């Protein structure tokens, strides 16, 4: 079915999505609304693939990818593009379904939480919808998000802060792991640059191995841990009750609390 798609905000996430829709041959017209369209977006427009900042019209699908802080001010102009049949999908962090519904004047709203690896098609995005949404609409929304990588869900909104704390924030935890491993190596005498190269490639490689393997993370970990060996000595420290398991539970809890606070600020 041919659809009219409107994307509001073609920054990093919006452009990654639109680029994927174009690559996949989206069956419909794509309008992009962004006052400072990038060179990439202008090139798409020059090729006739998209229209940039076209006059206001109701969209079939409307994807909102502006920063949450500017959404409140923009909502009245976005709402003009929302008709009775428009399905809205927001990728904005911390803007609730109730806020979208109230500010855009429609009940056809859904949210998704992507993560940064989505910018290279290696992300995981969690879809969040209302319980009454149809299976067909879920399938359409998931297909819109596939340019960013894997799509999970839908889940209920009350679980979105926990999912955000795991996968939305998660890339930062992976980067931090490389940082702290490198710092620890340097503290034990390695040249800091060499330590960083070793740590970075190790985190990248572990991710690639996990992607290529059908085994779960715990099995992969056990596979590289010889009984009474060197890795086991390190893991006994990392996995002790007061170490990573408890620190991560606290960190995820802090992220959930902050997500809830931000949601209240954008109401
Ligand atoms: N990047 C991520 O990894 C990530 C992960 C999860 C969720 N998200 C969510 O995705 C959304 C976008 O993030 P991003 O990283 O793509 O941010 P971004 O690169 O700053 O993109 C936002 C875009 O919206 C544009 N914009 C500003 N005012 C506008 C207006 N009046 N009308 C239309 N467009 C306007 C911005 O233009 P200017 O630059 O000229 O202001 C920019 O191109 C955010 O809500 C964020 O919470 C992002």
Characteristic key phrases:
single chain, 267 residues, alpha/beta, Rossmann fold, ProC C-terminal domain-like fold, 8-stranded mixed beta sheet, 8 strands, 52% helix, 18% strand, binds NADP nicotinamide-adenine-dinucleotide phosphate
Report on this model:
52% of the residues lie in helices and 18% in strands. It has helices spanning 12-24, 39-46, 68-79, 97-104, 135-145, 160-168, 170-187, 192-212, 217-223, 230-238, 244-265; strands at residues 3-8, 28-33, 51-52, 59-64, 82-90, 109-113, 123-128, 149-155. Strands 3-2-1-4-5-6-7-8 form an eight-stranded mixed sheet, sandwiched between helices. It has two domains: 3-158, Rossmann fold (3-Layer(aba) Sandwich); 170-262, ProC C-terminal domain-like (ProC C-terminal domain-like fold), CATH 1.10.3730.10. With 267 residues, the protein is α/β, with parallel strands linked by helices. The mean pLDDT is 95. The site of NADP nicotinamide-adenine-dinucleotide phosphate has 25 residues, from helix 1 and helix 3.
Q: Which class do the helix and strand fractions yield?
A: alpha/beta
Distance between the termini: 35 Å
Fourth-level CATH superfamily of the largest domain: NAD(P)-binding Rossmann-like Domain
* CATH C-level class of the largest domain: Alpha Beta
Order of helices and strands: EHEHEEHEHEEHEHHHHHH
What's the overall average pLDDT, rounded?
Answer: 95
Per CATH, the architecture of the largest domain is 3-Layer(aba) Sandwich
Biggest beta-sheet profile? 8 strands, mixed
* Number of separate strands: 8
Beta-strand share of residues: 15-25%
Low-confidence stretches: none
| Count of DSSP-assigned helices | 11
The molecules bound to the chains, other than polymers, are:
NADP nicotinamide-adenine-dinucleotide phosphate
CATH topology of the largest domain: Rossmann fold
Rg, rounded, reads: 21 Å
* Number of structural domains: 2
Largest sheet strand order: 3-2-1-4-5-6-7-8
Can you give the helix content as a percent range?
A: 40-55%
């Amino acid at each position: 079915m041919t659809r009219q798609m409107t994307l509001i905000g073609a920054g990093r996430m919006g452009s990654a999505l639109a680029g994927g829709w174009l690559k996949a041959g989206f069956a419909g017209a794509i309008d992009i609304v962004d006052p400072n369209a990038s060179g990439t977006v202008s090139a798409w427009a020059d090729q006739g693939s998209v229209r940039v900042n076209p006059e206001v019209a109701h969209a079939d699908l409307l994807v909102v990818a502006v920063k949450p802080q500017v959404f409140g001010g923009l909502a009245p102009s976005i709402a003009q593009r929302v008709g009775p049949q428009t399905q809205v999908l927001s990728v904005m962090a911390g803007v609730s379904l109730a806020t979208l519904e109230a500010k855009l004047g429609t009940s056809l709203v859904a949210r998704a939480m992507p993560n940064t690896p989505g910018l290279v098609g290696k992300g995981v995005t969690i879809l969040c919808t209302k319980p009454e949404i149809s299976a067909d609409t879920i399938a359409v929304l998931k297909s819109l998000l596939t340019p960013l990588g894997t799509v999970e869900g839908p889940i209920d909104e009350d679980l979105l802060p926990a999912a955000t704390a795991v996968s939305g924030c998660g890339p930062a935890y992976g980067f931090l792991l490389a940082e702290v491993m490198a710092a620890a190596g340097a503290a034990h005498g390695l040249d800091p640059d060499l330590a960083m190269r070793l740590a970075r490639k190790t985190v990248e490689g572990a991710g690639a191995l996990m992607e290529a393997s059908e085994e779960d993370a715990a099995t992969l970990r056990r596979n590289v841990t010889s009984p009474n060996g060197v890795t086991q000595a390190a893991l006994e420290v990392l996995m002790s009750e007061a170490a990573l398991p408890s620190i991560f539970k606290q960190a995820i809890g802090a992220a959930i609390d902050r997500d809830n606070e931000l949601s209240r600020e954008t109401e």
